[in-house]
């Protein structure tokens, strides 16, 4: 049987089964295969809470100057202002993404753009710090 004909038949069968059982909380367009049972939802929430708790501990033994993106970027800005040749020779613009990646990833662990009240990336502190650093870098290059 053609698979394109099979899919609508399956949907019709599931719709009829929901109507007979009285399930009214299904939203059209969502697959019933994607719906989580209460047990699965609880397990997912526990797993998510464990990950978030572990992520809070990652940088607890790191000095504050080295786990705050703004402070790290300030150190690079000072380096660029005091020793521009050395800064340029070190290819810092290529190194910063790799350096900041773990710090940003930890901050994005709990970010979910599908939630109703999610924070836009542009409003996050790390994004603003990088933006300010980039602006300062562009100003110093134009001088």
TrEMBL record:
One of its GO terms (biological process) is mRNA splicing, via spliceosome. The gene is Gcfc2_1. GO terms for molecular function: DNA binding. This is GCFC2 factor. Belongs to the GCF family. It is found in: Nucleus. GO terms for cellular component: nucleus. The keyword Nucleus applies. Transmembrane segments: none annotated. Residues 16-30 have a biased composition (Basic and acidic residues). Keywords: Nucleus. Residues 31-42 have a biased composition (Acidic residues). Residues 15-47 are annotated as: Disordered. It comes from the Eukaryota. Residues 70-132 form the GCF C-terminal domain.
């Amino acid at each position: 049987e053609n698979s394109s004909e099979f899919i609508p038949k399956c949907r019709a069968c599931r719709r009829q089964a929901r109507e007979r059982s009285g399930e009214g909380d299904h939203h059209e367009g969502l697959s019933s295969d994607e719906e989580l049972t209460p047990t699965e939802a609880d397990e997912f929430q526990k797993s998510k809470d464990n990950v978030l708790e572990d992520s809070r501990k990652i940088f607890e033994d790191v000095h504050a100057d080295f786990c705050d993106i703004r402070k790290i970027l300030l150190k690079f800005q000072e380096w660029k202002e005091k020793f521009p040749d050395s800064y340029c020779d070190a290819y810092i613009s290529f190194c910063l993404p790799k350096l900041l990646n773990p710090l940003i990833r930890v901050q994005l662990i709990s970010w979910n753009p599908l939630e109703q009240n999610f924070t836009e990336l542009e409003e996050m502190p790390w994004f603003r710090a990088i933006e300010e650093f980039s602006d300062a870098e562009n100003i110093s290059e134009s001088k």
